[in-house]
Amino acid sequence: MQKETRNIGYFFDTCDGGNGAAEAIFTDFPKFTAAAYALASECGCDMGCSRCLHSTACPQQNELLLKDVGLFLLEVISQAALNSQNSSSIFGG
Ligand SMILES: [Zn+2]
């Protein structure tokens, strides 16, 4: 039996009724990931900050955040999104 190797990410907005962000991410994921990577990689901070990688909802106040790991993950996800743009859906297709 082959082990399941897919990874699943969830995007949602917390505005009552939604603000359209989750839908926009779903319909244009490669553009979203490229923009996220550019924003984080071009930020002048060393450890991540509220401008690039911090989440105001983080229960650990982002203390465990490693910017280098975040950049690595954003780069891998961005490349995977671009590679799958013209093939099957990255959302499980
Ligand atoms: Zn930053």
TrEMBL record:
GO terms for molecular function: 3'-5' DNA helicase activity. Residues 9-53 form the MrfA-like Zn-binding domain. GO terms for biological process: interstrand cross-link repair; nucleotide-excision repair. InterPro entries: MZB. This is MrfA-like Zn-binding domain-containing protein. It comes from Nostoc minutum NIES-26.
